[in-house]
Amino acid sequence: MTDRIFEMHWICPGCGGECRGRDERCNGPNGQAGCGAARPASVRFFLPGAAPEVTDPELVADALSGPDWTCDHCGGANNGGASSCASCGNARDARDAATPTRLHAPGEMPSTGAAAAPVRPSRRMAEASPAPDAGDGRMFAWILGICALLILVAGWLILGYSSETRVTVTALPWTRTIAIEELKTLHEDGWSVPAGARVTDRDRRIRSWRNVLDHYETRTRSVTRQVADGTESYACGMQDMGNGYARERTCSRTRYRSVQDTETYQEPVYRNEPVWDTFYEWDIDRWVKVRSPEAHGDGEPRQWPEAVATGDRERVGPRQETLSAALRDENGVVWVEGLREASWRRLERGTQITVERDIFGSLQSIRAADGHPIVLN
Ligand SMILES: [Zn+2]
Ligand SMILES: [Zn+2]
Predict the structure, then answer these.
(1) Closest ligand relative to 70 C-alpha
(2) Does the N-terminal peptide bond of residue 301 adopt cis geometry, omega within 30 degrees of 0?
(3) For the chain, how far is it from start to end, CA to CA, in angstroms?
(4) What is the CA(19)–ligand 1 centre distance, in A?
């Protein structure tokens, strides 16, 4: 397959006009009314989007005559086939540089003259462009900063706010209970027998299920394979020929085609299998709370309720005490339950103490008349 050839364009650094690749001097767009400036050695060719393939034999021959060269004496660009400079007549020698050729990967060939020539930017464009972006960003940062500050202040108010009020201790209630337990024979069941139990019955039951491999089945399935099917050519890049033309490079590769096939395979088949275990029933003696006598009062002295275990199947179990305080301010009475004994004993009916509340009005801390903090259990 023959490579396709296209004519590239270049931007004249003298007048900014777009010139044809074949022109070594600025002839302007489509070869009309250019400024005549020589194409510089540092020219950057580009391939416009809709460039047609070059078919004219004369132009093809021009493209195939090799890269252009730049005259070392006058800077003029010359055809690859020329043996002397068209501008100054100097014979071509080793110091006259050939325009470099470059291979571009597919899609990498420049398609515009942007940044090709140092086109002087207009003054207005240079001044106008960066301003609005930076302004927007600064405004956004300001709003963000103010929001963060407001959240901080609100958080400080909620967490740090507290108000102290004086309240009167009006009552110091206490409750004391003792559990009386009885040794009872309980009937229980389960998979494992606790220590001290007397097994009364047992049977085999399904405790769980498990998946086990039973056998394999031979099955068939459809598979797609790729098989080689000749070669194909494809565009694999663009060669800048160094003379205003570009050549599309074609490469070849193996072409594949999909083939449907059936293959056999072994499919594992599972079955659900029961897991058997022994299930027990048993009798066991356990201490169970049957009653809890209670004593209560307001302030000292405190005493325990009378707790008597009757018979040899009863016993006196754990004791429990709850200490509370009733605090009154102008809004009413607040009950505080579960005080530590040492704290409770610091309080005295009829005295004034200090409480601290948060912004929502709930109690944060209580201090006794002597300033000691009151601690909850
Ligand atoms: Zn020009
Ligand atoms: Zn010259």
Answers:
(1) 2
(2) yes
(3) 94
(4) 8
Burial zone of 253 (CB within 10 Å; 0-12 exposed, 13-18 middle, 19+ buried):
exposed
**Stronger pLDDT, 132 or 187, i.e. the higher one:** 187
| Count helices and strands in the chain by DSSP H and E runs | 4, 16
Reported as a single tens digit per residue, the pLDDT across 92-144 is: 988 888 888 888 988 888 888 775 444 444 444 444 444 445 567 788 899 99
Ligand found nearest the CA of 13: 1
Cα 124 to averaged position of ligand 1 atoms, centre (Å): 24
How far apart are the CA of 80 and the centre of ligand 1, in A?
A: 22
User: Rounded to the nearest 10 degrees, how much is the dihedral formed by the CA atoms of 118, 124, 127, 132?
Assistant: -120
- Ligand nearest to C-alpha 75: 2
The domain spans of the chain are: 171-181+288-367, 184-238+261-284
Beta strands 245-291 and 198-240: pairing type? antiparallel
Tens digit of pLDDT for each residue in 247-278? 998 889 999 999 999 999 999 999 999 999 99
